[in-house]
User: What shape does this take?
Amino acid sequence: MAGTIQKKGDNIWLVRMYLGRDADGKTKHFNKTIHGAKKDAQKFLTAKLRDRDMGRFVEPSSLSIKQFLEGWLKDIARPRVKEATFDGYKGIVDYYLIPAIGSERLCDLRPEMIQRFYGNLQRQGLSSRTVRYAHSILSSALNHAEMQGMIYFNPCKKCQLPKKLQTEMKYFTPDEVRQFLAFAKDSKLFALFVLAIETGMRPGEYLGLKWKDIDFENMTLSVRRTAKARKGGGFYFSTPKTGKSNRPITLSSTLIEALRNHRSEILTAKMAIRDIYRDNDLVFPNEIGDPLLIGNVRRRYFQPILVQAKLPKIRLYDLRHTSATLLLSE
Assistant: This one.
């Protein structure tokens, strides 16, 4: 028996397709109610029979998208990505994907539903970058569902994404660098700013820098880790963003001198509270020895210097762009 169509009411049809027998020998069927003319039910049945015969038919599951995504995060994403990346995935899933489409069945997800979800995100004022990030996460999860035979086709593949906007890169000119450092001279993080501008290190890299990473004699440092804030408090160290990030960097005599002075100040401060100080060997620790938070560096030190020096507003991360610009200008 291939399949049958039974009338259930005015323009209501029950399509039933034979799927063989289960492990206990019981007959299995696929059932679907179709609203419309009988020819619509016949068209649907024909398509499903073709999928079955070609090995493309996926038996519908009662699993919701919420259940699927939560399982994917726990069993697939968490073991494979860094903690910060996983936090980003979970944030998108919890705040956007589950509230919007979590109640739908995984087998019922269609490209038009996902496309509508992307449009709603944009109407809420979210950037194209965030929408594209949500798409990347959802598509990755659905690729796994497709490989596992939970769905026949990843519907994300038929969705259109908002145009990727190119933001203008901001940085200091050589004159602005001199002006910034002149006003930063008395800051307790003067050495941090000199290092950021000279080396082009990422904030997480210099906040995770340890004294053992610096070779004062040969005037070099090695990037071996990055410091990350943990949600709910605390911190952890991770590997650099890319393989190329793990690199030795040559330092100028000016930076070496700034780091020596900074180390003396750190040792003095540490001795004053040695009973409670947590010695993580960090070059730029907070008051008790843990890594500084990027947000605190930005609000308490970086932004006030910009205001005092009457310089354009740029991000702390843009000191990395400034470094690249200075190298090009040379």
